[in-house]
User: Which sequence fits this backbone?
């Protein structure tokens, strides 16, 4: 029919050629080469996943904090089970017969051919006993694992814990398989990628009687596990221990930073728990218990509790007032029992009057700040208080408030810094007045800050106008540097000269002579110039919260700290001395004020915390 | 004037029976590959073997449906079907579901299917329609260019989701060849594949020399001028030697490949001059051939390093036998070969394949299903399956050749080429002759989507064959 018809032969030829090629190869491997038959008999393979040792975690002075210990998972492959002595088996493993039956049933449901976990994390002792007799129990084998072990029972929140990977992660990830461990909170989670190393595989040949005959192909297809990278955290184990001791029987948190770098020296949240409780087989049980505890020990207050900052926030309003030019160091306001404006009244404790700006910080005068804040919002440079408030908001946010600081720990709360839009939704839009929101002046009202944000602000003040994003890891083994964002200097919007002024106030607040009205004298130390600000946050449900921020020494500061003690009353009562002890511990490594130490450590604020103070 | 065609008497029952046999074998093999003591009935619908029965039943319905449709339907809607498939292929890129790492599935209600499977049918129909249209001259370059475009479009779209499936479209070179595509193109294709493989195994320097030698041999074969060829060869060798000498003498240490290239470049100038003077034809073509070959081997390296993912690189490299891969592809094929090899002459018996039973050949109900056959029925079984496929394909060639219409014949060769490609790659992969490209074995591998697509593809051709006497052109 056409000239190309002959090509059908070529096509037919190609078909036959391919078939012949295949038949030759098949003949060669099926008939000629006998080795495959042997391979097949011994070819029941067992893949044992090599779980690498998880990276260790050290503190900033290279003390070991978290390390690993061996544990063993017992796996079962249902279709290889032969009859066995169930009594003996249950005895060795210390399990009940019903557990045995249930577990075997669920293994069969999962897969007849694939291994699944039968009993997880048995001790080395049980493993040793079982291993001797394993040949009697066909279908079972052992998968070695590592679990975490802690040098001390501190820093549970910061370190985080490790648990089995959940379904969501299994679906989205290529790397994780069911039964793998993954960091779930804290450093374990945020540095999971480095800590986990890389899983390896060892292939063993197992004969028809389930005995290991040796490595498959001399380990040619094995993949070496790579152990996890060690991490040096910024925490000081000593300081952390000390902080947790001081905070025992109290609810609250301590965050201390190194102002020059943003490194987190300590992250305390109490009540806390012993990290060892979330390791191993008891983890599920213990987690439930902790979760149900009404004091919420699992809750990391340092990052996740948003409080109104109280009087500690006055330093911010002072700086903003100075920067906006509505007050100067010489501006004075009187205070006789508080702030009055028409029918409006904000109370204040007894102190000298009038005060200038520096003195207002020293004595923590509410009236001074109500006045300053009103001037800030009613500034004629702006069309209406809302616009001024938005400007106020940018100042506040430049210190790290109102948004997550984006540290290298998960679950940060952003806090809340209200702006004009926020109030437009509460009050008649565009028509509310400065007086409606004046509680912001003294750090009350709608504003919410977390302890780490307060510590960060303190660090920014200590640095006279800039900060580095707080971070908890100093160094990752094998990596040149930690994430670049921690190296970037972040500038606040306040001139350093104004900050110096405020620092004078903070100095005076702590170190002012007796009787001068300094609110933070309980934070003073002989050998170190501590600068700080007390705060007392109103608590409608019980005793007020005691807050204190501080940095030391005044010149060339080495530590910036924020202490929150719920139901602690005045800032000076508990928070300030706690801060002082932490500072002295960190800077001098010994405590000169032993009486204070005993006093703070022994105080129990959890009892009776719902009783309101008179 | 339409003759009434009795479908029943004109169906090629031979092909239909072969189809049913293969499908049935597939079903039984899936049962064996996935045999689960807890679900012993082959009709257990919670298991794949039960499900395959459902897919098979649906496939039979599809086949019957196709036989009922008028045969003109297919050529009439060929282009429309093509456009629809292209739209679906684009849709899958955006709203497709990802299964096993490739985003190739569309979901309509509770049914999932792969547009790529149906793209093969649409493309075959479209090529057939295009090449059989009036005014299309079959040996014009322009025509082939357009056809290539029709093939490349779905290929490119599918390549994004799954490179392996996209490769099937290369098979359409076969119907083109049958309709008059120059055999030079086919030979070029084979040459490129050869070059591709060799570029991993042999040093590029030697390949370059080889290409030069080959060019000379082809020159000899076509121009039949022995003296010229010899002269040309000596010129090249001479110049290259001189360059080599200069390099040694001056200790410049230029890489040998540049010496060769430089030498050949200079020689080319001489060749071109000589060609003009002595009126020798096609010399520029040979020169281009050499440079192209060398460029090709280098670009393979470049593409390999820059565009291929590590797991794809691994697959190719382990196929060449250069590097044994730890896990993954190398291991899978190894297991498959052991399974097949251990089948011996007559196999271990139905349901008794230990390798496949213990789940050590992966994808054993889909891509590696041939391993189960090889293990359980040995060489005898493998032989029978291969022979069945060969008979089917040759029968299809016979059917294609007896078509009076270009459309039916071209479509027929389209079907043959797709089936041949799947057959070659799939079985070749299980015995280690071909890289692991995950494509199913037609009619036998588990899978509703692919079974339906292959059934449709085949039965459209059977339907066209039924009406072959109706047609005048």
Assistant:
């Amino acid at each position: 029919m056409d000239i190309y018809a002959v090509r059908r032969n070529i096509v037919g030829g190609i078909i036959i050629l391919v078939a012949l090629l295949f038949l030759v190869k098949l003949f060669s491997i099926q008939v000629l080469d006998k080795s495959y038959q042997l391979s097949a008999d011994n070819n029941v393979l067992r893949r044992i996943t090599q779980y690498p040792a998880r990276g260790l975690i050290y503190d900033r002075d290279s003390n070991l904090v978290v390390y690993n210990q061996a544990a063993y998972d017992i796996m079962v492959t249902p279709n290889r089970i032969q009859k066995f002595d169930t009594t003996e088996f249950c005895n060795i493993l210390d399990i009940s017969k019903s557990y045995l039956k249930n577990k075997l049933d669920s293994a069969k449901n999962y897969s007849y051919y694939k291994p699944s976990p039968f009993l997880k994390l048995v001790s080395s002792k049980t493993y040793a006993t079982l291993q001797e007799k394993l040949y009697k129990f066909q279908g079972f084998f052992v998968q070695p694992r590592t679990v975490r072990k802690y040098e001390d029972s501190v820093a549970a929140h910061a370190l985080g814990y490790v648990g089995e990977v959940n379904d969501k992660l299994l679906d989205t990830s290529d790397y994780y398989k069911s039964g793998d461990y993954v960091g779930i909170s804290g450093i374990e989670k945020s540095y999971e990628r480095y800590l986990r190393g890389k899983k390896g595989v060892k292939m063993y040949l197992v004969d028809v009687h389930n005995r290991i005959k040796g490595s498959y192909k001399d380990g040619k297809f094995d993949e070496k596990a790579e152990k996890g990278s060690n991490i040096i955290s910024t925490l000081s184990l000593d300081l952390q221990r000390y902080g947790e001791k001081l905070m025992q029987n109290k609810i609250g948190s301590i965050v201390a930073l190194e102002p020059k770098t943003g490194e987190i020296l300590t992250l305390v949240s109490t009540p806390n728990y012993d990290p060892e409780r979330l390791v191993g087989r008891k983890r599920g049980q213990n987690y439930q218990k902790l979760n149900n505890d009404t004091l919420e020990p699992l809750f990391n207050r340092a990052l996740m509790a948003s409080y109104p900052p109280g009087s500690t926030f006055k330093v911010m309003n002072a700086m903003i007032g100075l920067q906006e030019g509505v007050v100067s160091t010489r501006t004075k306001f009187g205070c006789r029992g508080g702030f009055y404006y028409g029918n409006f009244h904000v109370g204040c404790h007894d102190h000298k009057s009038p005060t200038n700006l520096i003195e207002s910080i020293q004595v923590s005068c509410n009236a001074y700040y109500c006045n300053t804040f009103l001037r800030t919002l009613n500034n004629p440079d702006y069309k209406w208080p809302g616009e001024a408030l938005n400007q106020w908001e940018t100042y506040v946010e430049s210190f790290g408030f109102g948004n997550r600081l984006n540290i290298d720990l998960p679950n940060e709360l952003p806090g809340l810094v209200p702006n004009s839009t926020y109030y437009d939704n509460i009050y008649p839009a565009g028509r509310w007045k400065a007086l409606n929101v004046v509680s912001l002046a003294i750090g009350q009202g709608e504003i919410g800050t977390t302890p780490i944000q307060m510590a960060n602000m303190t660090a920014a003040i200590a640095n006279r106008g800039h900060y580095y994003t707080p971070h908890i890891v100093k160094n990752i083994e094998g990596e040149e540097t930690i994430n670049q964002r921690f190296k970037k200097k972040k500038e606040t919007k306040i001139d350093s000269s104004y900050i110096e002024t405020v620092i004078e106030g903070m100095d005076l607040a702590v170190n002012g002579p007796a009787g001068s009205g300094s609110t933070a004298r309980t934070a003073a130390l002989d050998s170190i110039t501590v600068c700080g600000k007390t705060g007392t946050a109103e608590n409608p449900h019980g005793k007020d919260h005691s807050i204190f921020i501080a940095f030391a020494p005044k010149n060339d500061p080495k530590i910036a700290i924020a202490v929150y003690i719920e139901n602690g009353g005045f800032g000076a009562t508990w928070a300030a001395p706690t801060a002082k002890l932490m500072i002295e511990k960190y800077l001098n490594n010994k405590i000169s004020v032993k009486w204070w130490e005993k006093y703070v450590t022994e105080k129990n604020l959890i009892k009776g915390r719902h009783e309101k103070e008179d | 004037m339409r003759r009434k065609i009795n479908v029943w008497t004109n169906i090629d029952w031979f092909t239909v029976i072969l189809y049913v046999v293969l499908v049935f074998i597939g079903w039984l093999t899936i049962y064996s590959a996935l045999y689960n003591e807890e679900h012993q009935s082959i009709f257990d619908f919670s298991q794949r073997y039960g499900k395959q029965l459902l897919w098979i039943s649906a496939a039979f319905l599809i086949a019957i449906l196709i036989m009922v449709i008028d045969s003109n339907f297919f050529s009439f809607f060929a282009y429309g079907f093509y456009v629809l498939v292209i739209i679906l292929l684009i849709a899958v890129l955006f709203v497709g579901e990802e299964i096993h790492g490739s985003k190739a599935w569309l979901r309509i209600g509770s049914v999932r299917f792969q547009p790529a499977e149906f793209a093969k049918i649409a493309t075959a129909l479209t090529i057939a329609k295009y090449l059989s249209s009036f005014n299309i001259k079959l040996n014009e370059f322009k025509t082939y260019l357009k056809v290539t475009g029709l093939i490349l479009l779905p290929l490119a779209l599918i390549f994004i989701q799954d490179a392996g499936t996209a490769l099937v479209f290369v098979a359409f070179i076969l119907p083109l060849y049958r309709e008059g595509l120059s055999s030079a193109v086919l030979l070029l294709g084979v040459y490129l594949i050869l070059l591709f493989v060799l570029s991993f195994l042999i040093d590029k320097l030697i390949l370059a020399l080889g290409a030069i030698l080959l060019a000379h041999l082809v020159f000899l074969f076509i121009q039949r001028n022995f003296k010229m060829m010899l002269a040309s060869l000596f010129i090249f060798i001479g110049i290259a030697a001189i360059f080599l000498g200069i390099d040694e003498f001056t200790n410049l240490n230029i890489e040998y490949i540049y010496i060769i290239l430089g030498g050949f470049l200079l020689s080319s100038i001489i060749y071109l001059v000589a060609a003009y003077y002595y009126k020798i034809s096609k010399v520029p073509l040979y020169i281009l051939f050499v440079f192209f070959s060398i460029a090709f081997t280098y670009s393979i390296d470049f593409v390999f390093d820059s565009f291929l993912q590590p797991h794809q690189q691994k697959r190719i490299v382990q196929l060449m036998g250069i590097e044994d891969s730890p896990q993954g592809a190398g291991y899978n094929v190894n297991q498959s070969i052991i399974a097949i090899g251990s089948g011996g002459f007559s196999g271990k018996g139905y349901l008794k394949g230990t390798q496949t039973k213990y789940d050590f050949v992966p994808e054993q109900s889909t891509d590696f299903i041939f391993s189960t056959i090889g293990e359980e029925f040995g060489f005898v079984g493998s032989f029978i399956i291969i022979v069945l496929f060969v008979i089917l394909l040759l029968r299809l060639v016979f059917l294609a050749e007896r078509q009076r219409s270009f459309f039916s014949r071209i479509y027929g060769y389209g079907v043959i080429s797709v089936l041949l490609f799947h057959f070659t790659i799939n079985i070749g992969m299980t015995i280690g002759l071909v890289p692991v490209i995950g494509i199913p074995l037609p009619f036998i591998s588990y899978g509703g989507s692919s079974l339906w697509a292959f059934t449709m593809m085949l039965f459209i051709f059977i339907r066209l064959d039924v009406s072959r006497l109706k047609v005048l052109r």
Observations:
- Chain B has 20 helices and three strands.
